[in-house]
Write a structure and sequence with these properties.
The protein has helices spanning 31-37, 44-56, 60-69, 76-83, 87-99, 119-133; strands at residues 3-6, 11-14, 21-23, 74-75, 103-108, 111-116. By secondary structure, the chain is of the alpha+beta class. A three-stranded antiparallel sheet has the order 1-2-3, with no helix packed on it. Helix 4 crosses helix 5 (87-99). The radius of gyration is 22 Å and the shape is elongated. The two termini are 33 Å apart. Residues 42-136 form the HTH arsR-type domain.
């Protein structure tokens, strides 16, 4: 027999064998509420772009580069030294970060300096770091 959970959103029950909640019965879907949510829902194209962005952040070295650039503007050679990586490997990761519009650069003499694209990238990085530092 399913276990009934009380929620304001819907009449939900859980299968005791799987603990997977499901709507029961289907005819009780709140159509008007669902219709009002759909225009606010993430569209498929934007969801795909967000997935690509998060995928590009799914690399340890890219995250370490972002962590450095959250602190200071740096050239490739300084990033490579700080992370104990080759300049070629750092440049490769920076190309990916540039393509995703997470970092940008400017030249000063013969050196190229990188920094975070904008405040949104810094906020995203800081929010995730703070989230991970929170106690369970």
């Amino acid at each position: 027999m399913p276990i009934r959970l009380s929620t304001p959103e819907a009449n939900i029950s859980a299968n005791p064998d799987t603990d997977t909640p499901h709507c029961h019965p289907p005819h009780q879907v709140e159509r008007q509420r669902i219709d009002s949510l759909q225009p606010k829902m993430l569209n498929t194209e934007k969801a795909q772009r967000m997935a690509e962005l998060f995928s590009s952040l799914g690399d340890t070295n890219r995250l370490r580069i972002i962590s450095l650039l959250a602190i200071a503007e740096l050239c490739v050679c300084d990033i490579a030294t700080a992370l104990d990586m080759s300049e070629s490997a750092v440049s490769h990761q920076l190309r990916t970060l540039r393509a995703m519009r997470l970092v940008r650069y400017h030249k000063r003499g013969r050196k190229v300096y990188y920094h975070l694209q904008d405040q949104h990238v810094l906020d995203l990085y800081q929010s995730v770091a703070e989230h991970l530092d929170e106690p369970d």
